[in-house]
Design a protein that fits this description.
Elements (H helix, E strand, L loop, with lengths): L1 E9 L4 E6 L6 E6 L6 E5 L2 E6 L10 E5 L2 E2 L11 H6 L6 E6 L5 H21 L11 E2 L5 E5 L5 E8 L2 H17 L7
Antiparallel strand pairs: 1-2, 1-11, 3-8, 4-5, 6-7, 6-8, 9-10, 10-11
Length: 187
């Protein structure tokens, strides 16, 4: 598993420290002619795909660059609005790179405080006396959220991703070790 992000949250739910170990995994670049056959919209000061999945471009992907130049939120490098730039037929053909946008500082604060609230609710609703709260949240895309609560009054949240190649290699190594008889007590 690779660690995607680490968040340190205090007892009140405030974000103390955050570290991203993020390399974008899925970025797609495509050259378009006029008119665009996908629908873009502005969401949280970013231009995202709202309709028209194709060729690896997914709904929710953000525009990361136009003609090889990174964009800044909803603006091109020259300061023009991306949606206005793409309405002009004279700007075509245009090469657009799409991918997952990074979280803003505000989104990171909201994520940390929201998890803190869920963690506290989970601790109180648990049928186990003295429950420590949520042990793990898992998504359908092999991402996990593991909270760690040291003896201090804070939570440390790890967002790891399971690596399919690692899982395959681990499985075959375990199978080889089982066949060789190197498992068991005293081995």
């Amino acid at each position: 598993m690779a660690i995607f992000s680490v968040y340190v949250v205090n007892k009140a739910g405030g974000l103390i420290y955050q570290y991203d170990n993020y390399v974008p995994r899925t970025e797609v670049e495509k050259t378009f002619s006029f008119p665009l056959d996908i629908v873009l919209k502005i969401h949280d000061e970013k231009v995202i795909v709202s309709f028209g999945q194709r060729d690896g471009i997914r709904v929710g992907h953000a525009v990361l660059s136009i003609n090889g130049v990174d964009v800044n939120g909803k603006y091109t490098a020259e300061g023009k609005e991306i949606l206005e730039y793409l309405k002009d037929p004279s700007n075509y053909p245009v090469s657009i790179r799409f991918g997952r946008a990074r979280l803003s500082s505000n989104e990171k604060l909201m994520l940390a405080s929201m998890f803190h609230s869920l963690f506290a609710i989970g601790s109180q609703l648990s049928p186990e006396a003295g429950s420590s709260g949520i042990e793990m949240l898992e998504t359908d895309i092999t991402a996990y959220l593991h909270p760690f609560k040291p003896g201090t009054l804070m939570n440390i949240l790890f967002f790891p991703f399971r690596c399919e190649l690692f899982d395959q290699n681990l499985k075959s190594a375990l199978e080889i070790a089982e066949k060789a008889g190197t498992f068991g007590p005293g081995s």
